[in-house]
């Protein structure tokens, strides 16, 4: 147990990202309001970026932009997680916009953002 | 507590009527007749909405009342509490499993992390010669993995298209929403929730908008030389457009940026991107020497197609960010 806590403190960025992920997930599960669910989803996204970014870091090395023509692996951090985070951010922007637009349409239709009420009203319509 | 839409609707009508009354006092006959026409439209929409609302209101009220009665039951509260408990348990289990996994990861900043394999070494050691980009991340996402970035731009474009489908206010919008129609019909819809022609905002925007736009252009054009690129620069330029439209209204931005401009720019940018990548995939797969020179590393006009691709991505992102803003705020561009 003590060894595990030591490892977690060494990897404190990853630990924080895991805790953030679970905070976002519980927000997603426990709120009935659609906007709060979307906020929870975005917190989960951000935690994944934090996790990826801290996996690519190497102590004492600089950002992967070539300075003075030095092209040595010993000088730069890993560029791949940065590219993955970039992809993730763009996709999450699109998904968030899509979810918000759908919420607005649901509000126009049912005049509420509470998921229970929306399901009840939609079920009534189908009959 | 649930918000009352009828109250908001009435308030919106009263607000627009009040603004119209102000106009009537001040302006000449032409404006007066226009305002009266607008009033007439609002009145017709109103009577239609009332019929529509009365028809649906009774059923809706019944469902809501049943829901409220159900919520007051003891069983519902117990189920709700059990659900919350279940959620907390699931999250706790997840946190323990994930923390245990983090505990067995390599240490933070460890050079021997298995992620630092021959792929990243190849990007760092050969990236400058093969792509011509000083910024290795840009060289990676726009040359080695350009197909992936094309998909990314397409995801953004598709997202914008779906938001347009869902939120664009058209002739049919009164059928699905009284609220949307009222916001669109009101002669002051552009400044419905904001102060009209705020002087402080306009003066600030006059100074800031050119700076923000030029900084965005700089970030896009230097994407292969310094941190930045099409996505970040495009987001900065989109923010500049949003600031402009917040300060000066949609009428003034329509002088140079309409829905047609949006379609044209995004289509041309995505097509240019796809064509130039087709060219480099064709030459690369057939081992033909590309005729596009890589240039001297560090110069603006270098790194072959990466500059073109960055500019295309920048245009797509700028237009999409502005489209999101316009759709969410007003329902049209």
Question: How is the topology of this model organized?
Answer:
The complex is a heterodimer of chains A (127) and B (333).
Chain A: H1 2-10, H2 12-30, H3 34-56, H4 80-110, H5 115-126
Helix pairs in contact in A: 1-2, 2-3, 3-4
Chain B: H1 5-26, H2 29-72, H3 74-103, H4 118-131, H5 136-144, H6 146-167, H7 173-176, H8 178-185, H9 199-221, H10 230-248, H11 250-253, H12 259-285, H13 306-329
Helix pairs in contact in B: 1-2, 1-8, 2-8, 4-5, 5-6, 6-12, 6-13, 9-10, 10-13, 12-13
User: How many domains in all of chain B?
Assistant: 2
The SSE string of chain A, one letter per element, is HHHHH
Q: Into which percent range does the helicity of residues of chain A fall?
A: over 70%
Radius of gyration over C-alpha positions of chain B, nearest whole angstrom: 28 Å
Largest interface: A-B, 63 and 71 residues
Mean pLDDT across every amino acid position of chain B: 77
Distance between the termini of chain B: 34 Å
Helix content of chain B: over 70%
Largest sheet of chain B: none
Number of helices of chain B: 13
Q: Please outline the major beta sheet of chain A.
A: none
Count, helices of chain A = 5
What integer is the average pLDDT of chain A? 88
CATH architecture of chain A: Orthogonal Bundle
